[in-house]
From TrEMBL:
Native organism: Ectopseudomonas toyotomiensis
DNA-binding region extent: 33-52
Pfam families for the chain: TetR_C_2 (PF08361), TetR_N (PF00440)
Top-level taxon in the UniProt lineage: Bacteria
SUPFAM superfamilies the record matches: Homeodomain-like, Tetracyclin repressor-like, C-terminal domain
Keyword list, A-Z: DNA-binding, Repressor, Transcription, Transcription regulation
CDD domains recorded: HTH_XRE
MF-aspect GO terms: DNA-binding transcription factor activity; transcription cis-regulatory region binding
UniProt key word Ribosomal protein: no
Transmembrane segments: none
Residue span(s) of domain HTH tetR-type: 10-70
Designated name of the protein: TetR family transcriptional regulator
Length: 226
C-alpha cells in the first residue's frame, strides 16, 4: 500500500508538471496562476502545494526535467576517469540540440524559458536561481574542458573559464535563435553546429593571457583548487 501511495504521488507530480508546462506555454509564466495549473492538471491547489512550494519551485522543477536525461553524459565529461571527455561533451551538445528539435516537451519548455518568462513580481526570486544555474553551468563546462586538456584533446594553455563562457553563450544563442526562427533542420545540422564550436576552442584567442582572467578564475587553465 505504501509503495502504491508513493507511485501515485509521483504520478500526480508528473501530472502537475505537464499541466504547468501547457499553461505556462499558453499564457506565459507571469500571467499564469497556480489555480489555472491545478484546473489543467485536474487536481486541487492543495495538491500543488504538497509537491511545490510556489510557482518558482514549480518552474524550476519543470526545467530540471530537461537536465536529467543529459546528466549522465554531463557527469561523464566532468569525470577525471573518463578517457574521452571531449567526445562525451560533443555527444551531450548534439543530444541537447536534437532533443530541442525533435521532442515537443523539450521544445515547449525551452520556448517558455526563452520567450515566455519575465523576472518580475512574484518571479523576481527566479532570476537569482537562474543566475546560480548559469554560473554552475559555466563551472561544469570549464571542468569538462579541463579534463579534455588533461587528456590532450585541447590545447594545454586553453583558458577553460573563458572558453566555457563562449561555449555556453554559443549554445544558448543557437537555441534561442532557432526557437524564434526555426528556418533550418536543427536535428540534421546539430553535429556540424557542435563541431563548429568545438573547433573554436582551439583558437589562439582562447589561450591563457597574463592579466586577462575571468572573474573568479584562480589564474590557471583549470578552475579547481589545489
Amino acid at each position: 500500500m505504501a509503495r502504491r501511495t508513493k507511485e501515485e504521488a509521483q504520478a500526480t507530480r508528473v501530472q502537475i508538471l505537464d499541466a504547468a508546462e501547457r499553461v505556462f506555454h499558453a499564457q506565459g509564466v507571469s500571467r499564469a496562476s497556480l489555480a489555472e495549473v491545478a484546473k489543467e492538471a485536474g487536481v486541487s491547489r492543495g495538491a500543488i502545494y504538497w509537491h511545490f512550494e510556489n510557482k518558482i519551485d514549480l518552474f524550476q522543477a519543470m526545467l530540471e526535467r530537461l537536465r536529467l536525461p543529459l546528466e549522465e553524459l554531463a557527469r561523464a565529461s566532468e569525470s577525471e576517469d573518463e578517457p574521452d571527455p571531449l567526445g562525451c561533451m560533443r555527444e551531450l551538445l548534439i543530444k541537447a540540440l536534437t532533443r530541442l528539435a525533435c521532442e515537443p516537451q523539450t521544445h515547449r519548455t525551452h520556448d517558455i524559458l526563452r520567450y515566455k518568462c519575465e523576472y518580475t513580481g512574484e518571479l523576481l526570486g527566479l532570476r537569482e536561481r537562474m543566475q546560480a544555474l548559469s554560473l554552475e553551468c559555466d563551472q561544469r563546462i570549464a571542468k569538462a574542458l579541463s579534463n579534455a586538456v588533461n587528456k590532450g584533446q585541447l590545447p594545454s594553455d586553453l583558458d577553460c573559464a573563458r572558453a566555457a563562457v563562449c561555449l555556453h553563450a554559443y549554445m544558448e544563442g543557437i537555441e534561442s535563435n532557432w526557437l524564434l526562427v526555426p528556418n533550418f533542420d536543427l536535428a540534421q545540422q546539430a553535429p556540424a553546429l557542435v563541431d563548429t564550436v568545438l573547433d573554436m576552442l582551439r583558437s589562439p584567442a582562447l589561450r591563457l593571457m597574463t592579466g586577462c582572467q575571468m572573474p573568479g578564475e584562480v589564474g590557471c587553465a583549470v578552475r579547481t583548487e589545489g
